[in-house]
Each structure stands twice: as C-alpha cells, then as structure tokens.
What does this fold into?
Amino acid sequence: MSNQPANLTVQHPLPLAFVRGEAVHQRPDDLYIPPDALEVMLDAFEGPLDFLLYLIRKHKFDIVDLPVNEITLQYMEYIDLMQGLNFELAAEYLVMAAMLAEIKSRLLLPKHTQHDDEEQDPRAELIRRLQEYEVYKQAASELDSLPRDERDYFTARAGLADNFSPLVILPDVELTELVMALKSIMQRAKDFQHHHIKREHLSTRERMSRILDLLAQQQGYLAFEQCFELAEGREGVVVSFLAILELTKEKLVELTQVEAYGQIHVKLAREHG
It folds into this structure.
C-alpha cells in the first residue's frame, strides 16, 4: 500500500459580495447599516377587514354580536407587534384601529333611557361591512376554485401539414351491383327493340375493340352506360356486357365507383394505359 496521502478537495469560502467585479471575503470594519435600511411590507392579509374577519374566525366570535373590547385588544396587539418589528403598515390599518377605538369609546358612554330606541348600535356599520366583505371573499374563493384556462387545463391545438393530401380508397365494384346496372340498361333497351328477323352480325371481339376506342377518345375514363348502344336492342346490350366482362378478365379495363353504391365507371387499366 502507498503511504502517500490522498488528494482532498478544499472548499474555499464564498465571497460576501462582489464590488465592481471583485470578490469581497471580509466585512469592512467601518461598514454601517442604518436600522431602517430594510423595510418589509406584510402582505399576509388583504386589508384591515380581512384581518378582522380572521380574528373573528380564530376566536370564534359571533359576527352579528361583535365583542368590540376583545376584538380591539387583539387588533391593537397586532398593530403594536408590527410597529415594534419596524414593519411598514398601510394607512388603512391605522384607520381601522381608530374606528375600533371610537366604537369602543361610544359603547362605554352612558345611554339615555329616554332615547334608547332612537340611538343606533355603533357596531352596526362595521358589522355590515364585515358581512358584506365575507360574502365577496367567499364568492372570490369559489371563483378561484373553478378550472381556469392556461392554469388548470390547456387547450390542444393541431393542424394539418402543408403537404397533407387525403387518401381516397375507392370501393370495389361487386358483381351484384354490376348485374343491377345491367338490368337498368336492359329495361331501357326495350324501348328500342325491333321485331325484325335477320342474321346476327354482332361480335364480342369487335365490341371489345369499340369499347377500347371509346375509352381512348374519353381519356381512358367512361361511364358504364356509355359502353352500350340502346338502339341495338337486347342483343347489343348482351354483347356489350360480355365484351366488358372479357376486357375486365383480361385486365385491359377496370370497373370503379367514386362512392359506395354510386355510378359505375369503366377506365383503362394502368398497364394498358
């Protein structure tokens, strides 16, 4: 084992102050601090009425039958304590002390028996102000307990990105919908049906080529009904329908819908387009 002592970290004393950027570690001998250099404003109560209400609740006094002597003693003790500690008091606290002293002195005066009914209680105005203040203080406390925006909850805000584009998923065309569309066209083709006996001249392959030509003329997008010639009657409708089925089977065209149960459209397949 090594006999060398371990390196110890020595904590240097912190400076008392910095004067013009230089640290001061020792208090000057000629430093003088006047007794009134530090003044503290006591904000424990919002005013003399708030402090009176606090004393009434603390000593469980009846606010309607206010004991002026006891409440004045408690109030004056508070005033003397604050002045003894050299605390700055608002002028309204001193005004309230004078008012309590006046009420106390008026209560000590003898009453005239003949005018008892006409004389008012000196405490009435103070009791009215205390009751009114208590109502507003309770209402303010209830309002403060309500949820507040930007304090108790925060509103979420979200927006779409600049390059956002909706993803459109087109529904698949079911066979039942295709049959219903054919049924509607067959019913309309009856109005153009002629009872002439002639040799059948319709070809499925030829009709497939015609539908592809129509799609090329319409930029590869065609309504399902536009693929049929109603004047050709039932045979023409059947041949056109078989041609569409054959084109779909060979993946030369696709059947699409803009919305569910909407109109059916025929468009060129991507590979063919």
Summary: The radius of gyration is 50 Å. The chain has a mean pLDDT of 76. The longest strand covers residues 253-257. Strands lie at 17-19, 22-24, 221-223, 253-257, 264-268.
